[in-house]
Specification:
The structure is a single chain. The protein has four helices and six strands. The chain has 184 residues and is an alpha/beta fold. The protein has a single domain, classed as Rossmann fold.
Length: 184
Amino acid sequence: MKIAITGGAGFIGSGLALELQKDHEILIIDKMSSNELLDNGNLECFGHFKNLLDFDGELYVGDIRDEKTLQKIKNFKPDVIFHKAAISDTTVYNQNKILTTNLNTFKDFIELSIDINAKLIYASSASVYGNQPSPQKVGVEDPKNPYAFSKLMMDKIARKYYDKAHLVGLRYFNVYGKGEFYKN
């Protein structure tokens, strides 16, 4: 199976790539960490080469907002796209930056997955629930920041494509482990 992983040099994406490369051909798409900072002073991108020291597949350094990056994935013809790339910092309040990166590109990935007949598994977030009491319930969301709002809107778009695409959204709660250090 051929698998593309956006955000594949990040914390979750790199762990996924390292595990899946044992049995599959992997293409990682990542912007990679640089000195670019967000409005809160934190790094814009957490992709780090040290997360990929044991990676044997193909790495493409590109931005998910760039048409060339989408074309690279299309040409690779994956069976599955794991879409993990996003601005994931919950303390960023630049709504334009968060929504153009996380939300606007998501529809492009849905359309790409339909076009190439690939499954799309994307990262949503438990942050969509805000301060709702446990147990949280789908349909009772209350996002408290632009990141959480972007993920809720992605989920709503995914529902609209339910009968046209094979989509799975994973609402991650707190994740931690090897490679988390590079999140700075």
